[in-house]
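=== RUN LOG ===
request id: a7f3
mode: sequence -> structure
chains: 1
length: 41
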Amino acid sequence: MRKQLICHASNIGAVKNPWNLETPRANVRCADFVLNLCNPN
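=== RESULT ===
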């Protein structure tokens, strides 16, 4: 969830509302979060 929060705060958060942080997200690279608009599978 931390990577997802960082992704929203530093990249997509300005254009994406609401943020909807989810705990069951996969633990993937930070780049994968950005490429998938902070919601990787």
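=== NOTES ===
Residues 7 and 31 are 9 Å apart (CA to CA).
Residues 2-35 form one domain.
=== END ===
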